[in-house]
Queue: 4 jobs
Job 1
Amino acid sequence: MHRTYHLFFSYARKDNEPRNDGGGGWVTAFHDELLRRHKLYSRRELKIFFDRQAIDVGSDWKRDLGEGLRSSRLFLAFLSPNYIVSRNCLWEWEEYLRREHSAARGDDGITPIFFVQPSDLRPKDRQAIRDWLVDVQRRYPWFEFAPDRFGDEEEKRVRPWLDDLHRRNRDVTCELQDWFDRGPEVLLELDAAERSAEVRAAPRSPADDLRTLAERLDAIDRRIASRLDRIALADLAPGNVVRSHEHFVGRHAELSRLHTILMTGGPQSGGRGMGGRGMIAAAHSPGGLGKTALARQYAHAYAEFYAAGGTWEIGCESISSIGLALLKLTDDPRLATAGQGIVVPLALNEEQKADPDKAATAILDHLKNLTRARVARLREELRRHPERHSPDDDLPIVEQPRCLLILDNVDRAELLSAEQVAFLPAEEWLEVIVTTRFDPAQFGVGERWQQTLEIEPLPDADALDLLREFQPGHRFAGEAAEQAAIKIVEALRGYTLAVELVAAYLGVHAAEGYQPAEFLQRLSDEGLLVVDILQGETEVAAKIRHSQKQVGAVLDWSIARLSHPARTALEFAALLQPDQIPMPWLETLTREAHPSELADRPGHPSKWASAWRELHGLRLLHPAEEIEDADRRAGTLPPLVRIHRLVAERARKETARPDERLAAVDRFFLEVSYLFQEQVGRGEDAALRAQHPWLRDHLSHLIASHASATLLRSAQVAADFEGEHGSLSRALGFTERILEAKSKLLAGHPDSEDLARDVSVSLNKMGDFLSRRGLPGDAEAALRHYERSLAVSEGLLRANPESALAARDVSVSLSQMGDFLSRRGLPGDAEAALRHYERC
């Protein structure tokens, strides 16, 4: 999201009351002075959201301030006794805090400006709070206070805020309390003093010396500039991790804890975290609680720490080795770019393409070289950055070059066995996050685990905020609507996917006058408010089951309101690989199913774009990569979309004509594979080649659940292309899965000549790939596959002696056997090869 403002000023209006002469108050004076100093220091304008108007009781102040908070990078809080007892000020603090990781790219976006002593802000118990407030009133007579001002609810709200404040302020001096009593006029005196040579030469006076004030103001300005530059540094980080979710809120504690795990020294140095030593952190939870979103948000929020090596996400569904996982990065051209003017090409040799273990070593070496190569360029890139605020001689530096890998959706224990994890170097440049539904104890990582992070349900306050985000103007229609929303949040029990789907559903219907109270009644009518605990079931398991039941109901309600084309698009998306669905593919499939309904008319809006907006509005489909604000406003469609696995599962169950949808998918992929056979290598084929990773991954995903003969033929084309132009080891593994699926089909239809021929083709491909790989035992395995292929072809010819196709297949198998024996060159192979050639 584009941020309009660099800073948001949060202050109590009483602290900025106008002077008797009609001039502005303290905060106004500080605002003007900060702008002046920043211009002198950085030569750039500082954009500040500063609401100078008092908040009237009937005004829509939350809307205005909420927009300012969403549009601001950093948060400046002017702490005073008035601030601490102001619900409005604390509301601003909490609202910013929920978005801090997105806005500030970290958890130190709040800078406190102290109008009172910091020690006064840390009372230890309720009585101390009362005593402290009485003392504040004594020292500041203008402060209005009653001894019972702080009730149980206020104390509950303030205490964690004070603890967090102390953490944030431990290394910053932003104390202006020595000058606050003198009012904003002190800044006018400061301006005159700074221009006075006599004052500059005079000995230091007590603590309220104006030169001390000047130094503190300069320090505040430098801190703001440096913090903005660290955000710019984060923008320079390479990688393929998508931008954070546009409605991501909360998870402050989990993100901060994950950062601590990754940055605090590991056991090698006596610490309790990873410390950049190649340890592995795991985020785990059942499906639907937001593991992947959390990992992506971490990569976005803390990108400045990975400005050199970047942040790289690898989908690991069904992957069982580190090498095969890392090979997925080779499909991404961004892996070769280390920065402006620097390209570090990754070229795997045939040996590395054939062996996943060697590929893993080569790719990790490449990432290490990329990380080192970018260090020298970062300072120059930051110097030219349009959002740079520090002068050339005071730019932030990368103290420790780092690279972050996210292994997403790990579902095979072998991937994180001790043997595989050994390929990940225990070196300071590499850090790894794993997301999984499994308990990390199931993996064999051993001592490489330092700390795991179990994703808890979304806190009620954050869930309520998420519901509010989707409402028109980011607010509920009234107090009754908000109270109903609170009860909905309680019913959803923090199940993140359910909260987001409900938020989207309520937001879409809000334009029709639909209120949260009506939705709450619907939940009650469907029996979705009370958790039933079955015999032998734990309370946690019952809540998860209940939440998934709620998700199913909300999905049904959402699907029911879709137009026919939008519902068809969802059904097709549910069949495809969930993380990266090419929008043109989805559009083609849907248009073929609804040619008249989606027929566009000149001068009219695209009907396909309308179907996409339906699906995205209800959060049934998402952009695979966050769309820039300008593109979103222009209605640009994302090139890739994604679907949550639980949403896909429900959509498949609700498909009215599943066989028809699968048949359409089969035809589509057969046409795409035909294009690969006919066009690759003949003229302009770059666009087609670029689609190969999608074709390979989607077909690999589909054969696990839908291994039709047509689909398997398309898959073999993708495997052949992978063997010729990509990774030989990946092509071999893919063909092995294809052969297994074809063999099962043949076992069920032993008289099918077409299926037998398909098996023979894959056997020959296996022989070719094994022969090319050349690892120990591959030659013998290749010969066995060639012999099996020949046996199948000869069996078909015996059954159909007049078949020219069967005769050709036998001839092809004999020729391949002869070629293999000639290459192997063992004693007797030459004679055997000759016999096979003669039989051809």
Note: The CA atoms of residues 623 and 838 lie 58 Å apart.
Job 2
Amino acid sequence: MPKPTPISLATSLTAALLLLLALPAASQFPAAPGEQLSPLVQRMLDDDLLSDAQRREAMIFHGQWDELGDLSPREVLRLRMLQHRVDRQSLLELHEAFDALPEGEVGMEEISQIARAAQLSGRPLESLQFYSDIDAELTGINFVDVARAFEDMGRYDQAVAALERLRDQAQADISQFKTAEDLTAAAEAVLMLARLEGRPAADYHLANRMLGKARDEVDPLYWPAYVAEAELLWARGNPQQAIEAVSEALSLNPKSSEAWYLLGSMMARFFNFDAASSAVEKLREINPEHPLADALAVQVALRQKDVETARGVIEPALGRYPNHRKLRSLAVAVEALAYDDAAVQEALIRWDGLAPGNPLAYFDVGQTLSGARQYALAEPFLKQAIERLPGWSAPQLELGELYMQWGKIEKAAAQLQIASSLDPFHLEITNQLRLSQEMLGYATIETDNFIIRYQPGVDVVLANDMARLVQAMADEFIERFQHDPPQKTQIDLMPDDQHFAVRVTGMPSIWTIAACTGDVIAMTPPRPGPKRAYGTYNWLNVMGHEYAHVVNLSQTNNRVPHWFTEGCAVNMETTGRLWRQYQLLAQCYNTDKLFEFDEINWGFIRPTEDYHRSLAYAQSAWIMEYIEKQHGWDKAIGLLDAFRRGVGERRAVAEVFGVEPEAFMQGFLDWAGQELVKWGMNKHGVEPEDDEITGLLNTTDPSTLELDRLVSAIEQHPGRPELIKLLAQATIARGDMAAGIEAVKRYQAARPVDPWSARELTKYALTQGDAAQAVDSMIYLDKIEGDAPEYASELARVYRANKDYEQAYHYAERALLREPYNPTYREFAATVAIQMGGMALAAAHVEALAVLEPTRAIHQKRLAALYTRLERPEDAAAARQRADELEAGAGR
């Protein structure tokens, strides 16, 4: 009877952490890019035509320096710069190597290395001094270095002046750039100017052409061109191609600091924290105190809202690199996520003294707070970043996406239009702008706690159902959590998967149906059709899951731990625990694989096993059940209050329960073991497996088993309910239904949580033509198999036959929760509503029928009759006129 569903809507399909599901899966990314050196590079290094000096230079450039022996001063300069060894002691060594060069051997290459090292350490003024002390003409890459130094100091006019000549030359004729290095430098100059000045899209195309020429025509082994291309693609909202480009760079130089940092940053953005952490380790292999490793590690921690870890990295890193711009910028973001306003202001004063006018710190803070759903706090920082550098599209896009997540569609459309004018070919900007403009034309329905937005058309049917039902749901939740969100929750009903995906991520690919982003719930309708990966599901159940997040986030100022709000959300669902969740919890309990207290959040954001995310949901809900049953729901409210006050998880548990988290978890485990006994799924433990039991349970055809053998096995192993199930299956297979059904009931008593018994009892009752016998079974199945409307529909018919119209209507509506666009279910619900005297409800369903089947005059006639009984004469007259018009049209 029920339709199979691939994923539990109570778990991963309703995850609040949408980016993890919406962006490409970890398996789609290169697991270990750059581990193998490109065969082209290896052949070049093995070429006998290379001199020893050329080979050594190439080995350093392509990251094969471990095979080198003693280094010359020139090689020290080159290698230490590539390794970002720019702490104070390393800089002294670099200066010693530079001073050791014979006077006649100090050329532009050597000066560039020492100047770039100063730049990487956060000493842009010192870097500029090296260039100002020479008479030789600067090359293209030197102009880029000079511009970066000026940018770090917030001197944008001078940065622009340093780059304009390169851009002018590129616009005139790119053929004048003969080397891959010059082409890459010119492309980087064009891109920097685009950021500094807000250049037209043609500049991006120009940069792309130069990088393509450097890569494909001039020098296929010049890995910096691939890194620059990856940065361009990433900045243009094309992550998959960016990953491909950075992977190619790593095959040409497996020790490229810039490539590993970029790859790790992308992975952190995608919540692929294992890959991001791997990139941190790769950077530390290059340099144990790599500043980019520190910066990336902080970004990973901030993405996970782990302030303690972030601070533990940033403080010693700043001790080594006190003026490193990215580290200083992230230091501000750390204090912002700790919600320490005084520390933020102090860090900003330090930042502005270091880089006056530079927007980076403001952007990092805004992006970090927005990612933590602190939209009101993030907004002024992003605005300040925009004010400091209006031509930079990144904060413009971030602010536009913030407004989208915040539900401020009008502001989002205006902001994204500005971003699009700066970067018209950015995929996320284009997608979000198009959607925000479309959503300005959406219709709205407002209740006490909700604003429902939907695309005009057939979705008005579901929107009207929502308006009837969600307010009662909200009232229940507000009472349960003792909190009424001050802002109305916006429900954005998106017409299909692509609209939904762009709504919550900016990109048109996603594998879920609903998401909470603070005060906004976005969802797709339970309607099969084009651009819809999923068909039916209980939309009110999913809405309840997401609304629990809305309430929890509001009452804690968005500071609720992930596991706690998911546990609350799952417990507020109207469906019961699924059989596979019972099985997962029992298996993990019996094999000591449940999460420890400090591990549960990692199950959501960094699962290391296929089952970890499902276990995180199921265990979180189980813990919440334990709290309520053993300690009282007021303890859950106490935890929420502690989180609101900024108390960490461990301290909150100690404060509310009076014990440390380890003791709390032991109490949970003791209780959970007792629950397993009730489920009939406790560990067999003292009863060792034997060959007979194993042989019986591995039987593929129960009809071949001897019943006496099964009965004997059950008597010898009373703690194995699955043997009773096997007896029931064997008896039914032999056609002895009476004995078989008795065995089914016996198994149901031994293991009440397995829905197999309810299905067998329902099947038997229906074959006997007496569905009333299976009412209890169908009620249970309707509850736990939330996507299937058939049980509710059958229950509605049973209750209607018994003239229990209220119960009949209850289940008729439950069927509609799964299939609100089904005309047959609508007509039945309207009929039952009339029989129980609910004329307004009947009218609502017939109005839906008129939308679903707009050419049927009968719906208008029924509406006319219902409106008359509801004393709505004008509506009745309008309905009669529509009926006449439809009948007249049908006769032509």
Note: Confidence is low (pLDDT under 50) at residues 1-34.
Job 3
Amino acid sequence: MIDWNNIATEWLSDYAAMGVFVVDKGLKIRFWNRWMAHHTGKSARSVMGKALFTICPEIETRGNARYYEEALSGKSSILSQRFHGYLIPMPADCDQSVFPCMQQTTQIAPLNMGGDVLSIVTIIEDVTERMEREQDLTVSERRYRTLVENARDPIFVIQDERLAESNPAARDLFGLSGDPGEKEMDFQRFMASIDPLFVPRLRQRYEDRMVGKPVLNLFIYPIKGQDGMRRWIECNSVLIDWEGLPALLVMARDVTRRKKAEKALFEERNRLAVTLRSIGDGVIATDTEGNVVLINRAAEEMTGWSFEEALNKPLLQVFPIINQKTRKPCENPVEKVLETGLVVGLANHTVLVAKDGRERIIADSGSPIKDREGNIYGVVLVFQDITERYRMEADLARTRNLESLGLLAGGIAHDFNNILAVILGNLDLVKMDLTPASEGHECTEEAGQAVQQAKALARQLLTFARGGTPVKKTAVLSDAIRESCAFVVRGSNIKCEYAINEDLWPVDADIEQIGQVLNNLFINARQAMPEGGCIQVVAQNDILDGSSLPLKPGRFVCVVIKDEGVGIPESHLARIFDPYFTTKQTGSGLGLATTHSIISKHGGHISVVSQPGRGTVFTFYLPASDKSSVDKAASPKTTPSKGTGTVLVMDDDAGICKMATRQLEKLGYQVCVAEDGKAAIAMYQRAMEEGSPFAAVIMDLTIPGGMGGKEAVGQLLKLDPKAVVLVSSGYANDPVIANCTAYGFKGAVPKPFTLKELGEALDVLLHLAGGGAGRGTEKVRVCRS
């Protein structure tokens, strides 16, 4: 038969991982297992039969002896007691590293037999590790609670559509009670705070998370806070075990300020982007390696590179710049900025070569981009297309040069015309006394032709001089264009092609001067094509808004003359309209200068575009006339007949006076001479008083140091409103000559003039005045100044 008592006793003695000892009614030790012997250092043999309090005095000294007395008396119904912090006595020589102090749980149980207590069993369990774990858990929970409760960010646990836990920050933000009995109600308050548009999305995220589907940990949604304000919450959720069931731990953060800052930054970036794309200046930003990181719309248009194409490209690939004069590449502005750390500007005459090869003159500056610490992390270039401004400034400078030159040219031409007048007038007189077959007649004829050429040269000088005001009439340019081109190319291997608007608007222009313009341009085109070719002429109506050309907005007639010639070098284009600039060995350099001056004085504009080997295109604009009809051609001049009467000549040049006297006498007139306007008025008044008025008066416009014709004619007309006064001047294109009737003159005879021109002028005016041969013939008058 198995003795279970012996087996249990042996097991408790040898294998139990706890202390077991038994005392009898006298509290003497009757059983002491191996655990007790090991941890007290006292063997079972040494303690057997001895009093418990002798072996373990700490039981008595610590006041725990009463538990044994209660167990022996049988008065206590407690079968077991637990004592925490009870220390088993340690042997004096024990190693503390082997036998540390223990936390113990002690159970004291009386063994009854028939109602009597026979002995007491004491079981001691070492709970040191468990107590340490419990203590660590308590500390950890306290730390967690401290962190969670004091966290400024909301933290809460969602489980089965209830808020299982929430910290004060969450309760304040969502208006939660935090009462364990209101977990479901708190969840409803939480859901009510969320923007309805985001509720379905959040529910889907919650359901996916709870079943383990992959979900973005971080998401942002708007809520209505406890204070009624709209806020943005950033949340991060983790699936956890909460009291044995899955739950969602949500850590939230109020990012309203950040969202507002992001919105403000986004709006600022948008404003900056809109501004950059809207401004007319080109903007390119690079990093410190010189690679493009930003390019605005204006820069895209000027460079021909889109933002996508230019991004991360080297600057000089997108922004190639050369010197206009030398055609050599310019220094990289980014390198210059990075080297100096300063704002730098491009040199004058910098040209940007676009992706399609077009060139623009630009002005720009480069500036370093710095962070708050002053470190350079990029460079920004701001540039603008100044091609038109450059051309306008060049035109203005050219005009000023022409004006300055005009003052000199006008004076020279005036004196030159006076000399020519004497030569031409005397040649006419000499030729009248020679037979056509004589050698002298031929010589005078050739001399006269030379004078006419000199007259044309003087007229070119006067065209851009101060006296070059055009005598305008309303006309359509169609016929003038065809006639001029046909005349220039006659007898050559060059043809003309026309594209002229059938309804071309009329212009108010000096047709003689515009004809000079057309001749100059067609002659240049012909000379540019020595091997032959085609001149293409386009004439059309155009309405300008004033933005693309230095002209006022309005209606214009545009004429384009294109050749297929050798072209003009880039270095010459800037000076092509300068006076006396020419590349021809036989050229005077006045053709295009005169052309520019004529167009400018008509209120128009002329420009040129050329590429060597590809031809040249001249384009000029003239203001369209407001008149609907053109002026009819003047009637042919009548053949001058012999005149009668006396003509008063007022001129400070003795040679002119002698020549005019001879011409007038040849025409049958008597002549009186005055040296200035004051003397002429006195002589005219005296003649009227004597009853022998002058038939006509010829006045020089300019008298150095004296009264000229412009002032004298007014006083003369006060004496005799019917006076026939002609103006004559070496300034053949002077405004007074061009509009003589506006100043009181009846006609004009610009110097130099021929005998025929003078006779026709007097004949027509005297007949129109009604004086005929009878005016001023009452008596022969002796002229006295």
Note: The first strand starts at residue 19 and ends at 24.
Job 4
Amino acid sequence: HTVLVVDDEPDIVLGLQDFLDHEGYQVSVAGTCAEALSQAHEHQYNVVLLDLGLPDGDGSSVLRTLQELRPQLPVIILTAYTSADRTVGSLTQGAFAYLTKPYNRDELRAVLQRAVGLQALAAKAEHAEHALSESEERFRSLVEAATDSIVLADHNGSIISWNRAASRLFGYTNEEVRGRPLTMLMPLRHRAAHERGLARITETGQSRLIGRLVELEGLRKDGSEFPIELSLATWKTDDAVFYSGIIRDITQRRLAEEILDRLRHLHEVILTQAGEGIYGLDAAGLTTFVNPIAARLLEYEPSELLEQPMHARLHHSRPDGSPYPAEDCPIYAALHDGLVHRVATDVFWRKDGTSVPVEYVSTPIVEKGVVAVVVFRDITERKEAERAVEESQERFRQLAEHIKEVFWITDPTKHRMIYISPGYEAVWGRSCESLYASPQSWMEAIHPDDRHRIQDAAVNRQSLGAYDEEYRILRPDGSLRWIWDRAFPIRDTSGAIYRIVGFAEDITDYKQVQESLRASEERLKYVIRGSNDGFWDGHVLPGQPWHSPFTPVWWSPRVREMLGYSEAEFPDILESWTSRLHPEDRDRVFQRLAACLEASTSQYDVEYRLLTKQGEYRWFHARAEVVQRDEQGHAVRMAGSLQCITDRNRAEEQLRLSEERLRMALIASEVGILDWDVRSGHLYSSAGVEALFGLAAGSFLGTYDAYIDAMYLEDRGAVMASIDQSLRDQASVNIRHRVVWPDGALHWLAWTGRIYRDAEGIATRVLGIVHETKGPI
């Protein structure tokens, strides 16, 4: 706020400037009546501090002129004159207050605050009066110009008017719908609920849908159904009740959300569920991610391999020992030519210096040669991984390039654009190539008033998964567009963030309608976008601890819906939540809340159980952050979301129990599992195999030769001949042999296994079981 100080005493002026600067005011100074009036004509001040004794006249004349110029401007007399006629005279002439020198800083601070507040209220009242006079005409023009469909109905649910957008959306003319029931716009299955809702409003004045954003289906004139987003509002006159609805076709948004979910799921499957060793390379040949299988095979931790030059670490030489330059490596060729490179065998080096032969494929994951993925294992599993990667690439391209919204991927530092969909060119009006060349150029297009906020959010919130922003951009043709931008981090198996993925949508039409309708007489009300999550917003009462039962907390209707309570049963206070928190979760949750509120951390992310009205405890995932703190850094306001995760937790528990049952069944059956890599001679065996051979746990060497050596000597020749015959022309291995236990006793074992072959029919793998039997057949 701006203050004009009118005084000719240098010490007083200097003291006032120091005080007002400290209080956050912008200060101007005038030493004479003439200077004061000149500055008052040129600038708009929030308050004036006026001395009555000035070198070129009486300050009372300045007061009178200021009152004529700006009647609502607060003028505070601050003078050494203390006579009653001066005091009363100034106040009767319109002065806001009269203070004497030397002034009291606390008294001056309080008077200034009241004066600024009064001036602000007067300005708002003037603005509201002016806006009200234009409201009706603006309302009519904006409704017709709106791209969303707007429908008005009377208390009987009969349509009284709608805009051109609604006519285009549903296919009816104005004459065809005026006076007809709203039910003609909805499928038959929704009509009974609609009628009940109208009756409920008539009887009780309450509705579950008014003021909410809901998704359901609409019905066109041709009989086709389509998904819509609906916002309902109601207003009353002296004679009747009226309803308004804002309707948006969300067919494209539903498709975009489905595409994004598929991409996220596909990414998780490839990185965490694949059975092969997988790592990614950027254009410089450095690793961008390493999955646990790859790190385990090479005897590294995943974090040790991230951002490392894999050629120097793992690919030192050719099989004959000669140097293997990076430019000759097929892995790195994929970074530049965008082709899939398959290599039959090569040498990779473990952390301890030993080598392991592998078969691998190096595949570009996106176009333009930006990233390559290396998948390695035996040839059968390699081919399966190759197909999975190729399919994911094609799905990604098909999905990302056929949506009008902008899908983007960057590295965590925001210095490199990994991928940008073609929608960027349509929305930003700039080429994708320009963004690849200068990854920060998208930010240059942001409106100057929004740029600092978005720069801060991109740096600090995208990696937290909390980046959800709206901002304006200026396109090269000078047009302004509104953007809704969301982003979330992608982590590797060690939890480190290595990608930021986002989704930007042009919401200009929506924002224009939203901003225009907000200026009308609140006939149509907007609510925040609907969500399956519940939301809450709480603030601490002055002088009360945050955990007071009566701490005000606004609970969204979705919170009560998830728990089954009405608004009366679940009022807007903290006690509604704390009284239903599971006793075993209470201490842990309160500790998290206290840490966040006392400024040791700004984020609140916790899972706990709440008691529903049906008497069942259900699991919830809560996220929140402090949105306001006092001068001491203590939180005074906090807001967050609540998501029911009971079904997810139950599914995870069922999976754990299923795996445990399988393990117990294998132990109880006294059966061992054998998995033989024919080419390498490696033979994986379960713990049951050692027990069947009478060996101590952990003593089996894990090779085919070790298995043969463990047989009874007289059986080895026949068994090896039978196995060789099976590998040549049979589909399975079926052998019986004896083993000698440490106590000298002979035991008969049977090995039954399936033979897997490559494209040339050569046996590559035998997978089967071994168990004790009574003797030869």
Note: The chain has 26 helices and 32 strands.
